[in-house]
Design goal:
Blueprint: E1 2-6, H1 14-28, E2 32-38, H2 42-49, E3 54-57, H3 63-78, E4 82-85, H4 91-101, E5 104-108, H5 118-127, E6 130-133, H6 136-144, E7 152-154, H7 168-178, E8 185-190, H8 199-212, E9 216-221, H9 227-236, E10 243-246, H10 252-255, E11 261-264, H11 274-281, E12 286-289, E13 304-307, H12 312-323, H13 326-343, H14 346-358
Parallel strand pairs: 1-2, 1-4, 2-3, 4-5, 5-6, 6-7, 8-9, 8-11, 9-10, 11-12, 12-13
């Protein structure tokens, strides 16, 4: 198959990485893949590293429009079988190209809320050749909100299990770089630093955990509109010296193994939870909230623990439970690695995507 992916975003968080990961996965399966992206973006860096053919559009005031125009030009030249995007900017562009070129459109939605426009809802539910959501929760939530999901498919985020893997070398190197010795226990958070992600719930829970675990430290990785407030509150804590902040970085492959557990404490519904799966792929157990699709990213009690969203006392108990049991963390880490390889690897999700694109389903009307 020939597939054309398009993405106009500049960030590199989980939502933005989904299309990039899927492009890499399908390329590795032997398909012809091209991508249109913003030049200099995190997504371009991910794709370049994986040697995926890209058409980068230079940044600037009109870069969004240029990305759209470049996508149209490339589609007319390459005549792909499938147009694939999770970027709302391209939904109607792809429908126009579909009519013009006879290509088919596979459109992802990552957001927990259905589109406000009735016309867009109809397009996704009835006219797009494949309408794809990223978890069972996501599909159920759209149904609850009144959207027709009879033709909606579920396809999880693919994870590069070769990159995200257990590594004693990366653990030692990263800890040495950060000045953390092996006797210390590291609790990690990675992602956007916004209130909805439960960062303040986690900070409150950590006051209890750090009081009971003198060898524990916290590694915060990310940025966002509430990052300054989080740093300020952590700075007022009696355990301020045990909080470390790093900006978001693509090479999380080296940071996950340095942690003894990863916490995903969202208080707003998550459609999926990429950080949870990446951490388990690296052999690190997780504690996640029960917000939305996060529960689908682990095997509770086997690869990690689930805590009630927004409950700092319950979250502290779950984190403390794992922090105090090294052998259990090791068992969970091994089980988590096996679970991710079986369910979320590039190879598995690419096969699922192939099956989805080839499934006997009517084209959009």
């Amino acid at each position: 198959m020939k597939l054309l992916f398009a993405d106009s975003t500049t960030r590199g968080y989980g939502t933005e990485q989904h299309a990039a990961a899927l492009a890499i996965a399908t390329l590795r399966r032997g398909h012809a893949v091209r991508c249109v992206v913003r030049g200099g973006s995190s997504i371009e860096a991910i794709l370049r590293q994986a040697q995926v053919p890209c058409v980068p559009v230079p940044p600037g005031p009109l870069s969004g429009l240029r990305v759209v125009l470049s996508t149209v030009a490339l589609a007319r030249r390459e005549r792909p079988d499938w147009l694939v995007t999770g970027d709302g900017r391209f939904h109607w562009v792809f429908m126009g190209l579909r009519a013009l070129l006879g290509a088919r459109a596979a459109i992802f939605r990552h957001w927990p809320d259905v589109p406000k426009s009735r016309r867009t809802r109809h397009m996704l539910a009835r006219r797009a050749d494949r309408f794809i959501l990223v978890s069972r929760f996501h599909r159920d939530e759209y149904r609850r909100q009144g959207m027709n999901v009879a033709r909606a498919a579920v396809l999880y985020n693919p994870i590069d299990t070769e990159r995200f893997r257990p590594s004693a070398e990366w653990r030692a190197h990263t800890r040495e770089r950060l000045g953390i010795d092996e006797a210390q226990l590291v609790i990690g958070y990675a992602g956007r630093m916004v209130r909805e992600k439960g960062i303040f719930t986690l900070l409150e829970a950590l006051e209890r955990v750090l009081a009971d675990a003198p060898r524990a430290q916290v590694l915060w990785v990310g940025d966002g509109r509430d990052a300054a407030a989080l740093r300020e509150r952590a700075g007022r804590s009696p355990f301020a010296a045990r909080h470390r902040f790093l900006e978001w970085q693509l090479e999380m492959t080296q940071l996950y193994p340095a942690c003894d557990l990863i916490v995903v404490p969202s208080i707003s519904a998550e459609t999926f939870g990429r950080v949870s799966v990446e951490a388990q792929s690296a052999g690190v157990p997780v504690v996640v909230s029960d917000a939305g699709g996060l529960c689908e990213t682990l095997v509770p009690g086997v690869t990690g623990l689930v805590s009630a969203a927004g409950d700092s006392v319950a979250l502290a108990a779950a984190v403390g439970e794992l922090l105090g049991d090294r052998e259990r963390r090791a068992r969970m880490g091994e089980a988590g690695r096996a679970w991710v390889c079986a369910n979320f690897s590039f190879e598995q999700i690419a096969r699922d995507f192939e099956a989805l694109l080839g499934a006997a389903a009517p084209l959009g009307a």
